[in-house]
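Re: [ENG-882] Designed sequences occasionally contain unexpected residues at chain ends

Forwarding the minimal case from QA. Structure tokens:
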């Protein structure tokens, strides 16, 4: 199961959402950075590494992103060239298992809609000072009439919810102290017959004038240690904290 928390920060003067967006773009050039403001949602800023669905109407992509490790010392030299992962950190069995749960789930989802898909990975992907285990899925669809059904099947993945999905989601809804609101949802341009780029709303915050609600979560397995999982959420919250402090 994946449980989340909300951390609140305050500033003495209101920071321009547009300036915060530009800061995030400069800090995180490899992430999907988005600033969203509507009367219903309020103002949200995110810098997320996790793609949910990307495609051009014919060829589509999704990913299984799970497992988290903070880079320190010499590990900060690590970069993400596929097939040439110099200084790649080693992963614990817990993180490997967590990512495999997500990859297996996505495979089962895709099998409901197509038999023309492939998986590559897992490999290590860097997102700021964190790394994650990441598998790429590429697939083709005969048509896009069922793309909404596919999204409903894929989301939420075990990376933000858990398995079995319905049981994990019910536990989250009844036990998490802070409502997730738009955290762990998804956003981005959606044009099924042209270009779609949807990303899971992670490493995000809601901007409320002088107050900022930051969100993060972590996957819990029976091998998890509470202190390590708490530190993982702190490392994820640092993505937006750095934007506010920069």
């Amino acid at each position: 199961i994946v449980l989340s928390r909300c951390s609140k920060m305050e500033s003495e003067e209101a920071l321009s959402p547009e300036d915060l967006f530009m800061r995030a773009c400069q800090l995180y050039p490899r992430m999907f950075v988005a600033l969203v403001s509507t009367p219903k949602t309020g103002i949200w800023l995110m810098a997320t590494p996790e793609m949910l669905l990307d495609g051009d109407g014919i060829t589509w992509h999704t990913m299984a992103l799970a497992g988290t490790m903070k880079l320190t010392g010499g590990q900060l030299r690590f970069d993400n060239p596929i097939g040439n992962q110099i200084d790649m950190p080693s992963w614990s069995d817990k993180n490997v298992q967590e990512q495999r749960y997500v990859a297996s789930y996505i495979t089962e989802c895709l099998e409901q809609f197509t038999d023309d898909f492939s998986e590559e990975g897992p490999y290590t992907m860097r997102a700021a000072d964190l790394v994650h285990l990441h598998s790429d899925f590429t697939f083709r669809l005969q048509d896009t009439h069922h793309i909404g059904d596919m999204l409903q099947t894929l989301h939420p993945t075990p990376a933000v919810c858990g398995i079995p999905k319905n049981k994990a989601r019910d536990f989250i809804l009844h036990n998490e102290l802070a409502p997730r609101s738009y955290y762990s949802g998804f956003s981005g341009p959606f044009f099924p017959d042209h270009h779609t780029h949807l990303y899971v709303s992670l490493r995000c915050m809601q901007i409320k004038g002088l107050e900022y609600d930051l969100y993060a979560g972590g996957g819990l397995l029976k091998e998890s240690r509470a202190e390590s999982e708490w530190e993982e959420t702190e490392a994820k919250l640092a993505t937006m904290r750095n934007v506010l402090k920069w």
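QA comment: On inspection the terminal residues look reasonable. The chain has five helices and eleven strands. Proposing we downgrade this to a documentation issue.
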